[in-house]
């Protein structure tokens, strides 16, 4: 498994990938090795042991602080060769998807991106992944003699409960860092602690029914009460009410939360594709004929401007009685 | 200063399409589909045309697939691209995308571009790999998921959103950029009527694998490393229920109870 290390820590998706790696390794009767690169990663690498990684090959260098394909790909490719793996898995995060694609080309192996389920049958690995923005799924199988490599979608694979008594054995790799024609000029992290959509447990999304940008305050407030991320339909993004990074759908993000609350969203087919994989869906819309209701577990036919504030209050009341 | 830009595009089913499985459950029914330029590739075309307008140069669009793909290429020409290359070879139908990308790489290489632009993903099989693979085959830097793009003719600079923030990246040309973002960011222009008339006279070259100096044996179906064994539709959702109540407050109470006690998600 290839771990993702950023800002001094492993990202949570690395633990999901390690957990999935452990399940695959057990099914194939082999061990699980980790590969980790980054600045300051050596001191943290043993943590992967909590999720089933036995040994981690590490390349720790300040030049690896931020992901850059031109530098990461040759380094990680050499590390994979040293591990001589039977299967390679990595996170389908923004950087992971990029790394995996180029790594596959460099090693002349075929990556499957954004895998949501893996099965091992008779020693063979099969992977399932969403196509057409989640309207349908494909099962893939690799040819005999081909190394299966796949990126795993965040927030889908079950994370093992960490076994804090276990540490992975850390091995430092001495791989030169290549010259590159590209560079990272600036990194601008949002310090507001906003939850990333593709990794959120709960998402509250607003659509055309919000009527104007300022009304998104209602959605923000509900999201805050629920500890949720804020999303938007394409209509809301096209209207300029929300940034494109909030867009859920076939030309936005495919999301997989435990709970998706659609506020004033009618449910265009492209939007349903992007959020249809959520565990529970709540739809709030005053039009009882809105297509979103055909996908919702719980439907509220009501004026959102009346309902959302009441809903927010109820959520706050519940949180105060539970805590 | 003028830059030679190549845009690689793919024709995909319209995002409004309802996807149905073919009887063999390994492919989809294509006969009723409306075909469009993959939206992200359309953003790449727009980005290329803006670069050309600013600095001069030339935009060539390259695609592969059956004869219907000509329509997508003509649309790009009508938007303002200068010429087009269509890789139309039946062999590309039955190989994996590593092979297809090898053919695309050979096709773009002979155009000698300074910048290659391509959508960050395609809305059909959504693998988001073509750009990175082409860059690797060429040994070029690639900057992925651009939501802005600037070039001074020597370097290219993009902004790339990452989880919880964004990074600014720069590469020396020649380089490849994959274009992300949304319709709002790129607002791709429509093909105007005069543009459509002009497009009919612009050069569109059709090529076979053999024309690219590649060995057709590499593209035999049995060389595929991976294949799709089956397709399946997402599980049907159990019918949901409409929560009724005297007023908004009553409905809100009932919803919160349902989410807390039944679904146990809050």
From TrEMBL, chain B:
Gene Ontology molecular functions: electron transfer activity
InterPro entries, per the entry: ETF_a/b_N, ETF_b, ETF_beta_N, Rossmann-like_a/b/a_fold
SUPFAM superfamilies for this protein: Adenine nucleotide alpha hydrolases-like
Domain Electron transfer flavoprotein alpha/beta-subunit N-terminal: 25-216
Alphabetized UniProt keyword annotations: Electron transport, Transport
Domain of life: Bacteria
Pfam family, one: ETF
CDD domains assigned to the protein according to its UniProt record, in alphabetical order: ETF_beta
Gene3D superfamilies per the UniProt record, alphabetical: HUPs (3.40.50.620)
Family affiliation: Belongs to the ETF beta-subunit/FixA family.
Protein name stated in the entry: Electron transfer flavoprotein subunit beta
Organism for this UniProt entry: Syntrophobacter fumaroxidans (strain DSM 10017 / MPOB)
């Amino acid at each position: 498994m290839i771990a993702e290390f950023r800002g001094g820590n492993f990202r949570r998706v690395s633990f999901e990938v390690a957990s999935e790696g452990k399940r695959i390794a057990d099914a194939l009767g082999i061990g699980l090795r980790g590969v980790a690169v980054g600045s300051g990663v050596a001191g943290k690498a043993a943590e992967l042991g909590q999720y089933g990684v036995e040994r981690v090959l590490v390349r720790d260098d300040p030049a690896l602080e931020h992901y850059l394909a031109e530098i990461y790909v040759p380094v990680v490719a050499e590390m994979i060769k040293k591990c001589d793996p039977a299967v390679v898995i990595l996170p389908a995060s923004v950087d992971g998807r990029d790394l995996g694609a180029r790594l596959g080309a460099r090693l002349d192996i075929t990556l499957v991106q954004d895998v949501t389920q893996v099965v091992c049958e008779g020693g063979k690995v099969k992977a399932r992944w969403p196509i057409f923005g989640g309207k349908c799924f494909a099962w893939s199988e690799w040819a005999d003699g081909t190394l299966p490599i796949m990126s795993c979608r965040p927030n889908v694979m079950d994370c093992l409960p960490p076994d804090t008594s276990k540490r992975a054995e850390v091995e430092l790799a001495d791989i030169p860092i290549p010259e590159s024609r590209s560079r990272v000029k600036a990194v601008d992290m949002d310090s507001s602690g906003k939850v990333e959509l593709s990794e959120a447990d709960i998402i509250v999304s607003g659509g055309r029914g919000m009527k104007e940008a300022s009304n998104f305050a209602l959605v923000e407030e509900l999201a805050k009460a629920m500890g949720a991320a804020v999303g938007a339909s394409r209509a809301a993004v096209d209207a300029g009410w929300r940034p494109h990074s909030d867009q859920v759908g076939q030309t936005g993000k495919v999301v997989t939360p435990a709970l998706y609350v659609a506020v004033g969203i009618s449910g265009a087919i492209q939007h349903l594709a992007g959020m249809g994989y959520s565990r529970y869906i709540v739809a709030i819309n005053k039009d009882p004929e809105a297509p979103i209701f055909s996908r919702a577990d719980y439907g509220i036919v009501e004026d959102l401007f009346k309902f959302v504030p009441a809903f927010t209050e109820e959520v706050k009341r519940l949180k105060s009685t539970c805590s | 200063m003028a830059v030679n830009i190549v845009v690689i595009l793919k024709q995909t089913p319209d995002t409004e399409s309802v996807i149905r499985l073919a009887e063999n459950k390994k492919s989809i029914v294509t006969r009723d589909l409306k075909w469009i330029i993959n939206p992200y590739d359309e953003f790449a075309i727009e980005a290329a045309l803006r670069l050309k307008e600013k600095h001069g140069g030339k935009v060539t669009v390259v695609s592969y697939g059956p004869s219907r793909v000509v329509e997508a290429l003509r649309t790009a020409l009508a938007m303002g691209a200068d010429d087009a290359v269509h890789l139309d070879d039946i062999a590309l139908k039955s190989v994996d995308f590593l092979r297809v990308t090898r053919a695309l790489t050979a096709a773009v290489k002979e155009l000698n571009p300074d910048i290659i632009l391509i959508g960050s993903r395609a809305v059909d099989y959504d693998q988001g790999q073509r750009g990175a693979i082409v860059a690797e085959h060429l040994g070029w830097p690639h900057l992925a998921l651009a939501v802005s793009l600037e070039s001074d003719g020597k370097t290219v600079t993009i902004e790339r959103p990452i989880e919880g923030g964004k990074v600014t990246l720069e590469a020396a040309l020649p380089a490849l950029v994959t274009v992300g973002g949304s319709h709002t960011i790129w607002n791709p222009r429509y093909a105007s009527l005069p543009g459509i008339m002009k497009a009919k006279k612009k050069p569109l070259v059709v090529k076979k694998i053999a024309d690219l100096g590649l060995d057709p044996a590499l593209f035999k179906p049995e060389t595929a490393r991976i294949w799709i064994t089956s397709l399946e539709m997402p599980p049907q959702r159990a019918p949901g229920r409409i929560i009724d109540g005297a007023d908004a407050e009553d409905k809100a109470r009932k919803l919160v109870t349902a989410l807390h006690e039944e679904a146990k998600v809050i």
